[in-house]
User: Which sequence fits this backbone?
């Protein structure tokens, strides 16, 4: 039986794609959206069926609420939801960081945190906004749930079933484990890509440099076209894990620099071959698709 | 009138694609190849017409010689070519570094350095080897020539014409300018990508980390699947410029780290927005294709 009503708070790439995927699967009857800007485009594209006037309007008659805003907005949303949340309604989120979101949920929702199932869909594109939403965005992608003893197993299962209806592969982690894993394989690379573009852009000869930048540079920096607001929040909200990753990476880069400075050809080739072999094995094993997906 | 005979020394992705592109354009009559391994596949694929027995055999009857080996092999090749180089024969190369190759040419060729026109085709793929060669590899790509007063203008024009026949956009730089530009936009990103994969691969939980790495990680690290031998040589042969770039990048990363550590949201968002806007403007202006090309 389809979910009677889903409320999507933050109707952008992720929230819009969740709605489209559930609609395509026949897993939801009605989607109500809430955004910062008017939702004309989301209505026109059929991403939502109705635009809510405010958070109370969005939540009061919903069966499930998805928070798909930048994580920095979630504390105030949880606080606003607390008094209007129907007893049987579940909340989930799409934040890329989990310890901070769970902390905000506890602070904002109080004992009603039992109705919140934290989730992170590991999918996305460097394009943001509802116009980029697509029903296939989560197909074959990981969705990581980070529930605790605060939530009931059957509620976690209900949220997992929705993500599976989108075609996603659902797994669970502790929030700490989640934040450490994604600091390494997602948050750090985003910082590295932003840093490279900003480094080049600040040069007096930036125009010449960009003129000769080619496909390697383009792909390396693709994630530097991601939403600054979203990634600012992720960097700040997963600060400790990210700082550890930046430091670990700095150590590795210093080691590589030392090999270059010393003219250590065998050492450099060993490092490069190890990296290439590991990456190629990863690509072959996990069959990461060719689609233009980030996270 | 097509070139009667081209000799390709190093029949891999670049050398093979140069041959295929000139053949397709009707710009060459016969291609002789020389490789470290038997050239059966290159012959079978029609990339070369004949396999030379040695460097003397490859060069003696050639009109143009392309050196498309890793740059570390070029010193010995120039030395071996010196005594067998026909007077009217031009040599060019496809090395990603230029000051070192020119130095090797002067040392190896002596006064015959006048017959060497240094070139860098800014194209490639992370796949190496002749099986990856394709005639369209250089279409719309930059080829940078770095001639000096040692070479005659008409010889530089002849080499430029061959690259244009491959569909490339030919420009010229000084060797120093070339090496500085590509250290920034190509050599540095390759080092950064190798370093990230090697950093992750060295962790006790590497398997878990790779299991949750997604499209952003895949594209960021694509160039870490490039040939270790080739990139070892590039790193060592453009050492000074690369070390400067690693240090400049380290400073930028330290600045970004400080913003994260200080919880400076506006500062982080400014940096990220600046990088995103600059990258998006670059993509729009230079219309870098969607093909899977590195350099």
Assistant:
């Amino acid at each position: 039986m389809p979910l009677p009503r889903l409320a999507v708070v933050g109707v952008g790439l992720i929230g819009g794609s969740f709605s489209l995927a559930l609609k395509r699967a026949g897993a939801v009857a009605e989607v109500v959206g809430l955004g910062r800007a008017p939702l004309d485009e989301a209505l026109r594209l059929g991403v939502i069926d109705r635009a809510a006037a405010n958070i109370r309007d969005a939540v009061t008659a919903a069966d499930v609420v998805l928070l798909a805003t930048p994580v920095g907005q979630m504390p105030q949303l949880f606080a606003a939801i607390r008094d209007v949340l129907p007893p049987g309604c579940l909340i989930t989120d799409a934040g890329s960081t989990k310890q901070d979101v769970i902390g905000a949920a506890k602070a904002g929702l109080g004992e009603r945190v039992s109705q919140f199932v934290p989730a992170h869909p590991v999918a996305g594109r460097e394009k943001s906004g509802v116009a980029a939403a697509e029903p296939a965005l989560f197909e074959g992608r990981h969705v990581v749930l980070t529930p605790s003893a605060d939530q009931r197993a059957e509620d976690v299962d209900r949220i997992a079933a929705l993500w599976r209806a989108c075609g996603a592969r659902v797994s669970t982690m502790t929030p700490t484990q989640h934040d450490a894993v994604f600091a390494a394989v997602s948050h750090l690379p985003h910082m590295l890509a932003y840093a490279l573009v900003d480094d080049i852009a600040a040069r007096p000869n930036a125009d010449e440099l960009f003129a000769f930048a080619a496909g390697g540079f383009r792909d390396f920096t693709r994630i530097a076209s991601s939403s600054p607001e979203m990634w600012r929040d992720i960097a700040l909200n997963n600060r400790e894990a990210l700082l550890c990753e930046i430091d670990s990476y700095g150590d590795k880069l210093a080691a590589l620099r030392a090999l270059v400075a010393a003219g250590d050809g065998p050492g450099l080739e060993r490092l490069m071959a190890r990296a290439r072999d590991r990456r190629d094995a990863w690509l072959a094993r996990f069959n990461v698709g060719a689609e233009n997906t980030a996270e």
Confidence is low (pLDDT under 50) at residues 289-295 of chain A. Chain A touches chain B through 95 residues (CB under 8 Å). The two ends of chain A are 30 Å apart (CA to CA).
